[in-house]
């Protein structure tokens, strides 16, 4: 021991000078910032345990979620927090005022959570802040004046909250501000004329508030302004300032429903104008005859008091997509020059809405091309027009406007193949035919695009994204799009890796995500700013942290350490190496022991056994491949045998799986309280050695999806399918009515319905479940939970997708999709085809029995028809049109009571003979009319697209 001490002393003396830099460089995060982060964590409520890995130590060395630390040492010898991003994590609670102690932060991002309370005025202390992103929460109260102190602020987004009070005049001091988004709040008072001092401002969104007074003419002095959107405010009696017509760089002017009066000013000076919406006001006089911009795509002057004739300046506009003059006092004729000189691409559309005026005639060509839709309904013209003219011009639908859609650019020649895993998909535009890869999936929204019809601009948009991300064009794919209220364009993007690799590497994932989350894209005025709604890293990217943790040592200091250390190490004996190795092993062992103790103490639930990692390894033959029976986004599933010979299913999370960390405790907590013959039983869990495993009763017949798959050798009879449907419905009904408190499952699908040895159905996988709402102060129980959209595409309730309101009827919709799978054998989504749409199209064409799964043998026609009717009622777009889960159970019990053969109910069979001569159901069948849209599948938190009017 003495020799060791002497050796260590000699080493310390030899390296004392060079180690000084190391000691300085190894300083941890500034203590005040650590304390601030702890206070923020304590103020937030995290029902899904996203913040479980916020540990007690230094955030930069403990990998705190959402924290990015500097890679250099500050003058005070400490590391500093640079970014705090907690996007879309279902957080509630409030934002602690200690956030103001993060004095070196550049990005503060709490978008799309449920955080309430006021915005802390202490944010004004963060002089380095560049992005302040608080949109999509429940903040209330006034906007703090102190935000005006943030002189480096580039983007301020507090839209979609419950803020009130005036816009602080101090905001005029934000000299670097380019994006000001205050829309969708309850902000009142006047628009401060002082905002005209924001010389770098590109986008000003104040729509959907309670603003009043006049429109400041000074806004026309903003030299960089590209979009001005003030829709849905109360500028009663105000007029549009004439100076607005001089805003030569403005791309979009939207003053919809603002109670404006007076005439439309001369807009000929707006040379870059692409989009003009002055609808739903009290504007009067004639439409100005001055020439409008040749770039214009959209003109909406509907629902005003405009009179006179339609001016010639609305003709020969090459990029025009939408012109609405409906519900005015216009008279005279409509000239066909509006459309006859235009050249249309296959995806181009022109919609002309002239309804409810006093127009008497059409001059020129009366046979517009198929790309043009015109409505003159409720004009004198339609009272005297010929039958042909009525067909073309006087119908009840304007038609033609693409409110939603999905890409048709699929790998159609690859349908007979299958990608090797659920998270791999065909790369649609790859030069390598039928190539499979794992994309990044992004929920994205254009906040204010300068067009009304997206398909003609889709290639341009993908090119913009590809160039911005430094990718090839084929790597960017628009999976689907949908117009939302306020003329916002929501889309689901897939970013594929290069054809030379079927997965992105870690650095590429982080680079792409960093581009989206820090708004590093070059500005594009035509597409406007965007909202990042979701960028969840799913398997195989789920283990990638939100940002790489830095080495915490600057390059200069590191160089000094390396050179000094070389000289020092040469001067010491070999014995030190042994000591260091021994010490490192001891430290590692101590750290792992502490991790195990901390982890194992974090989960203690009565009635659920706590297994050790060793027990799980023994049960599965050290997790051998032969024991694996399944795999999903959470991880792998193994068949295990416990020492008492009990056969179990062990679901083992992927190493570092974010999804597993989020869902682990939720599933344990819920399943430990649920006991029903149609619910899978949780026997225990393992939470040690940085492993997370759930132990269930083993289901020998696998998942319902396995049985319905075309590759399955066995098949299920119609009666057995009905019994599986009833068992599933009873299990979910138990969630909704008998669990205390009730539970919404949120991820019902065929692969989450397991079958035991008797083919009885048991509902599984409660990782995304949410507790039903509790009574409010008045004792009333709300019918929904407001939460971020999560689930599986193809099964997702359209109304929940649109409103973020999760209800018991959301589970009804998902189960209805499972019923359609039982009917057809099809997947919910396959090769871009949505099962709800396919079944409805077949039904409406009288061919629904042509897509029934002929592998299920004989079936009574009446029962099959009733089952189909029930399935389609469950899959209605609107919540109120669906039956309750109790009604679903009653109807299934009624259908089963009609069945005459008990053997058909119990036993699977492969016969293809039918018990009756089948014909398509009559038009009087009680199946509701339903429309849905195709969506390509995946594991994102969104999927089915509801029908919606764009504005």
Describe what you observe in this structure.
- The chain is of the alpha/beta class and 951 residues long.
- It folds into five domains: 2-26 and 554-602, no CATH class; 212-343 and 350-400, Ribonuclease Inhibitor (Leucine-rich repeat, LRR (right-handed beta-alpha superhelix), Alpha-Beta Horseshoe), CATH 3.80.10; 404-534, Alpha-Beta Plaits, CATH 3.30.70; 609-697, Phosphorylase Kinase, domain 1, CATH 3.30.200; 705-906, Transferase(Phosphotransferase), domain 1 (Orthogonal Bundle).
- Helices cover 25% and strands 18% of the residues.
- It contains 21 helices and 45 strands.
- The protein has a 14-stranded mixed sheet with strand order 2-3-5-6-8-10-12-14-15-16-18-20-22-24, with no helix packed on it. Strands 32-36-37-35-34-33 form a six-stranded mixed sheet. A five-stranded antiparallel sheet has the order 25-29-30-28-31, with helices on one face.
- A hairpin with a 3-residue loop joins strand 33 (628-631) and strand 34 (635-641).
- Helix 2 crosses helix 10 (555-570), helix 15 packs antiparallel against helix 20 and helix 19 runs antiparallel to helix 20.
- The longest helix is centred in the middle third of the chain and has 29 residues, at 574-602.
- The radius of gyration is 32 Å and the shape is globular.
Helix content percent band:
10-25%
Largest beta sheet, briefly?
14 strands, mixed
Helix/strand structural class: alpha/beta
Which value, in Å, is the CA radius of gyration? 32 Å
Our count of domains comes out at 5
> What would CATH call the architecture of the largest domain?
Orthogonal Bundle
Mean pLDDT: 77
End-to-end gap: 81 Å
CATH class of the largest domain: Mainly Alpha
Number of strands: 45
CATH superfamily (homologous) name of the largest domain: Transferase(Phosphotransferase) domain 1
Strand line-up of the largest beta sheet: 2-3-5-6-8-10-12-14-15-16-18-20-22-24
CATH fold category name of the largest domain: Transferase(Phosphotransferase), domain 1
Shape: globular
List low-confidence stretches. 1-26, 408-412, 546-603, 656-660, 901-951
Give the helix tally. Answer: 21
Percent of sequence in beta strands: 15-25%
